[in-house]
Each structure stands twice: as structure tokens, then as C-alpha cells.
Design a protein that fits this description.
The complex is a heterodimer of chains A (533) and B (328). The longest helix of chain A is centred in the C-terminal third of the chain and has 55 residues. Chain A is an alpha+beta fold and 533 residues long. Chain A is built from 14 helices and 18 strands. In chain A, the strands form 5 sheets. In chain A, strands 11-12-10-15-16 form a 5-stranded antiparallel beta sheet. A 4-stranded antiparallel beta sheet of chain A has the order 8-9-1-18. A 4-stranded antiparallel beta sheet of chain A has the order 2-3-7-6. In chain A, helix 6 packs across helix 10 and helix 12 packs parallel to helix 14. Chain A starts with 5 loop residues before the first helix and ends in a 7-residue tail after the last helix. Chain B is of the alpha+beta class and 328 residues long. In chain B, a hairpin with a 1-residue loop joins strand 3 and strand 4. The longest helix of chain B is centred in the last third of the chain and has 33 residues. Chain B is elongated. Chain B starts with 23 loop residues before the first helix and ends in a 7-residue tail after the last helix. The chains are: A alpha+beta (533), B alpha+beta (328). Strand 18 of chain A pairs antiparallel with strand 5 of chain B.
């Protein structure tokens, strides 16, 4: 047990040396490391709780997504039945499906065949067979229902989250924030982490808006008040004003052009009134449609609608053929700025809601680093004194192993670029207390073996080999706890679990190989008659 | 070498024989009483859940002058956001503001934070803001309970495989005991019970099982060595033999935690407090509950079918480590 071949020695020393070397950059500031090779500059990234920053968990409004899909199916059904000249009554949406009643029973077959074309067959990526996105079924009393399948809804949510992540990224980039982390979380959530952002108010403002922009014609067949009292004209609906909730406009539901068609949007000032406006330009297809609509409707008002609220409803004085224009709506400068950012980044597929927010100011982060660092140093000193009092020279060996252990944790975190959080620092400090346990087990065993009258070499060997099974047992149970902690973990607590797990594995290495090597080397030099324990 | 290391101090004198098992009636009764007390506390006073589990808002602020908490209370109390809890936190300039979850869904939480920010004005430094909505807090609570149950179950299975079911049962009873008592302290003093405390509980589980397994390992070894020794005597022997190690390890761990508790800052104080308490309870339960428990249930005495503990021959250690009892 006390004999090592040269390769083993080299590997053990190599790992220990590399660990110390790779952990060193963490003790210096980035400016002190400047000019050194890249690998010497690799440090543990600091978590938001240490460097300050905002953590926002956003949830997508899935109901909204489903509702909009059902609305578009509803529109397609109306379109289809109209083209086929099939009479229907009661075309309506429930939470989960679209229902339509066909007036003439003899037209049922024809209607069903036609509506089946709306089933949107797609190829299942996993099995390669064809499945429908929408189940079209015919029921009693001439009812046909169209219901999106759960799988199709899940797929929609998945792609909507993907699209939303892109939009959120663009919007955050426009605010000039550096290095945001934006990732999917679970089925319908997005986690946004922005370092150095103490006040996330602005951030939330930018993310919180769906920013669906549409241009729609104003329906002048009746006044909004009449529409409120009586029946709405088919194909039209009431939209509230952005300025005052009470006031509303009666608009055609049909969208002339939407924000998707925008090529650019930028804040500016109106040339005459010099009030803040947003200038925009459509892409060519959108520009053509806009030109056509404005040509046909000179003298009539159209409305600019943002997230269901009418920003303004100007009258078309002349056809707009260039595809560019401006939106004015009593904006402040800041508001015009934000709106143009939103329009440039595109609309979110559905609205996002902040369901969790954790932000830490840079000064608290700095305090935490100082406190964590001080606590770690004191923990280290206390453990050192305790171990040397308890085990003398062998205690000092254990401390050498402990230094390598901590270096290994830091080196692995640096290499993995795993974030160091305050609980992570606590994990390192705690590891100092727990990691020496393996050494304690070995030394206690040596003591016992020596007491039973064994010669020094035998006692030392037995100490290592007999403690081995116990060390494995206790470390494996520790790892089990760490793994579950990781699973539970949100942000910083994960950091704690990671350092604890790495520390446990590292302490296996340092106790079983490194300490043994040190003890063996010492033994061969000194040749003691008895174990100094 | 000019420097010589001091002669090691032996905390536990050689041949110490404390009759742990003979105390077991007393300590079992004590522990059962404390656990019952905890359950009563939980039923009557409950836990002071932090926002992680209850939803709501926490803001940590720093004022330029020593904070006037009464004035802040009046100012924020008038915002119509329920009854904000305002307390000093660390230095006289630091204040912690808590708002309960606002009625009206996730949006209402955000509006409340905006209102508080506005009311505080710019002279106050907002050092930390945490807002947890109802959806997330419910999920976190569920996840925390699962994590504790899964860890206990995982440990039970592991110890069962490596030892016998009696050991596994004893270990898990000791673990439940540790977690319950720690939770009991949080209930009795109405300390803030948040996610970091659950993280501490999980770590306590890991620490306590570590302690228990070391003693169990020794018990198993002695079972093979002393086939005729009465069980009580054998358990006492095993606990005494490992006592020095138990004290050393709890010592280093406690010192490290104490450093964290005293110097690690307010943010992790709840966590380190739970850990400090849990490490003590965990050590106690390993020695006074988990080991003597084996007398109550009785264990198999014939361990001859099991591979003997590794001797000083190379390679056998690995074999022994992966061997599980073949009969039970």
C-alpha cells in the first residue's frame, strides 16, 4: 500500500499541480491577469447574487396562444363555408374547440369533406406517420367540431417559446445590456438572467409587452355606442383606446398589414408638431398591400392597433405608396423609444408574465463575496488548527490534501465555467469541514491498529485499507444527497449542490491517493518506529 | 526540521467505555418527546414560510442615515399593499421589507414592487428584490417535500443494500428525527423558513447519514469479529471505537459552519443556522438513536457468509466495497 510506481506518482502530482495552477486565477482580479495566456485567465463565473443582476422567470400565456389559434381556425371555417356556399348557424369557440352547425342536413357530407382539409396533416417526426394537427369530427344535430390535438398544442407552445426567446433576446440587446442569459425552462417558461442590472423595471417593461401591431380599417357602418348596445356587424369588433379605457373604436377584424411586415422602426419627431413619433417602413409585400388599401380608402379612417388597444385612428388623406409612415399617439420621448424597440424586435407569440424575480444590487454582491471569502479563510484556519492539534504532523498532511481539494473544486468550476454563487462559497467552506473526514477515518484507524501492537508500516497500511470501505460508503451517500439537492435547486442552491458534489469526489481523490502518497514519502524518508498519532 | 509538530491530543482517551446503549431508554424517550413537541408546534404555530413557499416580495434596502423604521412603516403602510413587515437587518442602515402575496395574480406582484420602489425614492439603495408568485411558490414547496422524501428513500435503499433492513430503518428514523427537530426549532422561534433552509435540511441528511454509516460499518465489522458478544455490548464497543472520529469530524464541520454563520453575511444566516443545529442533532441521533435502535429490532448475528473487511492485501479492498450481504 505504501509503494507507488513512478507513473502513479506522476499522475497524482500532475493532477494536484494542475488543480492548484488552474484555481490560482480566481484569487486575482481580471486586470491583474491581463497579458497572461488565456487558460491562466479562466475564472469561475460569478453568480448573479455575487456580481449583482436580475433573474426573471417568465411564463407564456398558453391560453392566449390557444385562443388565437382557435380564432384563426374559426376564420378559416367561415371562409371555407362561404366559398362553398354552405349555410351555417352558430359558429363559436369554446376553450378547446371550434363548433359549427350546418343549416341543411344534406350539405353535411360536403361541409365535412371540405372542413377536413383544415385538419393540417403533418408528419410525426418520431414515427414518420402522418397525423393531423386538428381533429375534425361530426356529431349529432349537424354539428361539426374542430379541435386541436394536445400534441399539436404542445408543439405550438414549443415553437412559440422558441420564437419568444428570440424576440426577448433582440429586445434585451436593444437596451444595450451585456451578456444576458436567456433560456427555456420547462414547457412554457423562459428564464432571463441579466448581470449588472439592479433595477429590472426597464427590463420588465421591454419584455412585458406582446407588441402585436396591426393596421385595421375603422367600421363606419355604425357608431361604437350603437355597436355596444346592439349587435356587432359581422367581421367587426370593438377595440378600446390606448389613452382612455372608456372610449372604444369599432374596427374591421380583418388586418390590412401587421407588424410582421415591418422592415424598420425608429423614434423621431413630427416635422410640424415636433411631438415624439415612431417612423416605420414596411417590407415590399407589406408596402404593396398598404398602398392598395390606402388607395381604395382615401377619406376613410384606419386604426393603428397595439396589443388590442388603438393608438390612433387617422384619416387617410392620400394613398401611401412609399411603404413608410409614422405613428403618433401622444407619446413621450421614452415611450416612442421603447415602442420602436418593440416594433423592431417583432411581436411575442403570446404575452409573457413575470412569475419570479430575484435581483441583487452590485454592492450587496460585493459584500457577499467579501463575507463568503472571509468566512472561508476563517473556516480553513480553524480546521487547520483543529486537525494539527488532533493529529500533529499527519494533521498537516491532511491540510495539504485539503488545499488540493479546494483547488480541485475551484479548478473544475473554472473549467466547466460553472457559476459560483454565495451558497456555492458556503459549499466550499462546508467541504473544508467535511472533506477532512476521510483523513480522520484513516488516521483513527491507524491509531487503533497501532494500539493493537502493529508495527508502524503495518498500522499505516491497515489504516488506509480498512478505512477504504467506510469512506466509499459515506461518500456515496453524500453524493446521493448532493444529486437530489441539484435537482431541487433553483439558481444559487444548485451552485451549492455542485460544489458539494465536486468536493465529495475530490476528497475521495485527495484522501485515498494524495494523502497516501504524502504519508508513504514521509515514511520512506523517516522510517519511524511508531506512528506519530 | 527545526519545527516539530505538537503531539496529537487524544480527545477520547484510549479504552473509553461509555455505555451508550444503556442510556437508550432515556434518550429514546427524550427524542420521542421532542418530536411530538415538534409536531404539536407545527400543528399550532406552523412554520413562518418565507416568500419561496408562500409567495410575496422581499426587498432589502440600505439608507444613507440609520433607518427610521417607524417612518418607513407609515410610508409603506399607506400604499394599500396589505400590512408590510419591516425590520432591521444586520447594520442600522439595512432594512428588510416584506410584502405578502398580493391578490390579483402575478401582475399585482409586479405592480406592488413598482409602487414600493417609487415610494422609497432615489435616496434609498435597493440592494435586493425577490418576488415569487403563487405558481412558483406552490411548485417550490412541492419540490422541496419531494426532495426530502426522495433523499430519505434513496438513503434507505442504499443502506438496505449495503447492510440489512434493520440498519436502513434505524438510519432513516434517525434522519427523520434530525429533520423534524430542525424544523421544530424553526417553528418554535418562527424563523424564516425558505428554500435555503430546505437545502440545509438536505445537507443535514447527507451529513447525518455519513455519521450513521461510519458507525454501522464498525458494527458490521465487529459482528464478524465477535460472534458471541452480546449485542448491547457490541454496539457500545462500536460506538466507542468510532467516538474519536465522530468528535473530530463534528468538530471540523462545526467550526467551518460557525465561521460561515458569524462571517458569511445575513443572506445565508438562516441556512447556516439550520446547518449548525442539524449537525449537532445529526451527530446525537447517530450515536444515541441509530445505533441503539438495532437492539430494539434485533439483527442477524451470523455474518460469516459476508466477505470480511479488507485486509492489507491489495485489491481486496475494492472487492469488499462492492460486496453486499448475500443473505438476510
Amino acid at each position: 500500500m505504501l509503494h507507488f510506481n513512478i507513473w502513479k506518482v506522476l499522475v497524482i502530482l500532475g493532477i494536484s499541480f494542475a488543480a492548484v495552477l488552474l484555481s490560482l486565477p480566481n484569487f486575482f482580479s481580471p486586470s491583474q491577469l491581463e497579458g497572461l495566456p488565456r487558460w491562466m485567465q479562466t475564472r469561475m463565473p460569478l453568480g448573479l447574487d455575487l456580481q449583482g443582476g436580475s433573474h426573471l422567470l417568465l411564463q407564456m400565456n398558453v391560453d392566449e396562444l390557444r385562443r388565437e389559434w382557435l380564432e384563426s381556425i374559426n376564420g378559416e371555417v367561415r371562409q371555407t363555408l362561404r366559398t362553398e356556399r354552405i349555410g351555417y348557424t352558430g359558429l363559436s369557440n369554446t376553450r378547446e374547440e371550434v363548433r359549427v352547425v350546418i343549416r341543411q342536413p344534406e350539405q353535411m357530407d360536403q361541409a365535412f369533406t371540405k372542413l377536413k382539409t383544415l385538419a393540417r396533416p403533418t408528419t410525426n417526426s418520431m414515427f414518420g406517420n402522418t397525423v393531423n394537427e386538428v381533429d375534425v369530427t361530426r356529431g349529432e344535430n349537424n354539428v361539426i367540431t374542430l379541435k386541436p390535438t394536445p400534441q399539436a398544442i404542445t408543439d405550438r407552445i414549443t415553437s412559440a417559446i422558441g420564437a419568444a426567446i428570440e424576440v426577448v433576446r433582440r429586445r434585451i440587446d436593444f437596451t444595450g445590456t451585456t451578456e444576458p442569459t436567456i433560456q427555456r425552462q420547462g414547457r412554457d417558461r423562459i428564464l432571463v438572467q441579466v448581470p449588472g442590472f439592479n433595477d429590472p423595471t426597464k427590463l420588465k417593461e421591454v419584455i412585458g409587452k406582446t407588441a402585436k401591431l396591426t393596421f385595421q380599417m375603422v367600421d363606419q357602418s355604425m357608431t361604437p355606442e350603437e355597436a355596444q348596445r346592439g349587435n356587432l356587424p359581422p367581421g367587426s369588433a370593438l377595440y378600446p383606446s390606448k389613452e382612455e379605457e372608456q372610449r372604444s373604436y369599432l374596427l374591421e377584424k380583418r388586418v390590412i398589414v401587421s407588424g410582421d411586415e415591418l422592415e424598420s422602426a425608429s423614434p423621431g419627431f413630427d416635422q410640424r408638431s415636433s411631438e415624439p413619433v415612431v417612423n416605420f417602413r414596411f417590407k415590399s409585400a407589406g408596402a404593396q398591400r398598404f398602398a392598395k388599401a390606402t388607395q381604395e380608402n382615401v377619406g376613410r379612417p384606419f386604426a393603428i392597433v397595439l396589443d388590442g388597444h388603438v393608438i390612433s385612428a387617422p384619416v387617410i388623406r392620400e394613398p401611401i405608396l412609399t411603404g413608410s409612415g409614422q405613428i403618433s399617439g401622444n407619446f413621450g420621448v421614452e415611450e416612442a423609444n421603447t415602442l420602436s424597440v418593440l416594433l423592431r424586435s417583432g411581436a411575442l407569440p403570446a404575452s409573457l408574465q413575470v412569475i419570479e424575480e430575484r435581483s441583487v444590487g452590485p454592492s450587496l454582491g460585493a459584500d457577499s463575496i467579501a463575507a463568503g471569502g472571509l468566512a472561508s479563510v476563517i473556516a480553513f484556519l480553524a480546521v487547520t488548527v483543529f486537525m494539527i492539534l488532533g493529529y500533529g504532523l499527519f494533521g498537516a498532511f491532511a491540510i495539504v490534501a485539503l488545499i488540493v481539494n479546494v483547488a480541485l473544486i475551484m479548478a473544475v468550476l473554472s473549467l466547466m465555467q460553472a457559476t459560483l454563487s454565495l451558497p456555492g462559497i458556503a459549499g466550499i467552506a462546508l467541504t473544508m469541514g467535511v472533506a477532512v473526514d476521510a483523513n480522520v477515518l484513516i488516521y483513527e484507524r491507524m491509531r487503533e491498529e497501532a494500539r493493537s501492537g502493529k508495527a508502524a508500516v503495518l498500522a499505516i497500511e491497515a489504516g488506509f485499507s480498512r478505512a477504504y470501505a467506510t469512506i466509499i460508503d459515506s461518500h456515496l451517500t453524500g453524493l446521493l444527497g448532493g444529486a437530489i439537492l441539484f435537482w431541487l435547486g433553483v439558481g444559487p442552491i444548485r451552485g451549492f449542490a455542485v460544489t458539494l458534489c465536486i468536493g465529495t469526489i475530490a476528497s475521495l481523490f485527495t484522501a485515498i491517493t494524495l494523502t497516501r502518497l504524502i504519508v508513504a514519502t514521509w515514511f520512506h524518508r523517516v522510517r519511524p518506529a511508531e506512528v506519530p498519532l | 526540521m527545526a519545527f516539530t509538530f505538537p503531539k496529537p491530543i487524544e480527545l477520547i482517551p484510549q479504552g473509553t467505555k461509555i455505555p451508550f446503549v444503556s442510556f437508550f431508554k432515556f434518550f429514546f424517550t427524550l427524542s420521542i418527546a421532542l418530536n411530538v413537541l415538534t409536531v404539536i408546534l407545527l400543528a399550532t404555530m406552523g412554520l413562518n414560510f418565507g416568500i419561496d413557499f408562500r409567495g410575496g416580495t422581499v426587498m432589502e434596502i440600505r439608507t444613507e442615515q440609520p433607518a427610521d423604521i417607524a417612518a418607513l412603516r407609515t410610508k409603506l403602510g399607506g400604499l394599500g399593499l396589505g400590512d408590510p413587515q419591516i425590520q432591521g437587518f444586520g447594520t442600522p442602515n439595512d432594512v428588510l421589507i416584506r410584502l405578502a402575496e398580493q391578490p390579483g395574480g402575478e401582475k399585482a406582484q409586479q405592480d406592488a414592487v413598482a409602487k414600493v420602489r417609487e415610494a422609497l425614492g432615489t435616496s434609498v439603495e435597493i440592494r435586493r428584490t425577490e418576488v415569487v408568485g403563487g405558481t412558483v411558490s406552490a411548485e417550490l414547496l412541492e419540490k422541496a417535500v419531494w426532495a426530502l422524501v426522495l433523499t430519505a428513500a434513496g438513503i434507505f435503499i442504499y443502506v438496505w443494500f449495503r447492510f440489512e433492513w434493520q440498519f436502513a430503518l434505524g438510519a432513516v428514523i434517525a434522519l427523520v428525527h434530525d429533520v423534524l427537530l430542525t424544523v421544530g426549532v424553526f417553528s418554535a422561534f418562527q424563523l424564516d423558513f425558505d428554500l435555503t433552509v430546505v437545502a440545509a435540511l438536505l445537507t443535514i441528511l447527507g451529513y447525518s447519514i455519513n455519521d450513521t454509516v461510519v458507525i454501522y460499518d464498525r458494527i458490521r465489522e465487529n459482528l464478524r469479529k465477535f460472534k458471541k458478544m452480546p449485542l448491547e455490548q457490541l454496539l457500545d464497543l462500536s460506538v466507542n471505537e468510532t467516538l474519536s472520529r465522530t468528535i473530530m469530524t463534528v468538530g471540523t464541520t462545526f467550526l467551518a459552519l460557525l465561521a460561515l454563520y458569524l462571517f458569511g453575511g445575513e443572506v445565508i444566516r438562516g441556512f447556516t443556522f439550520a446547518m449548525l443545529f442539524g449537525v449537532i442533532v445529526g451527530t446525537y441521533s447517530s450515536v444515541f438513536i441509530a445505533a441503539p435502535f438495532l437492539v430494539l429490532v434485533g439483527i442477524k448475528r451470523d455474518w460469516s457468509g459476508v466477505t470480511v473487511a479488507p485486509s492489507n492485501k491489495r485489491g481486496r479492498a475494492d472487492k469488499a466495497a462492492s460486496t453486499t450481504p448475500t443473505e438476510s
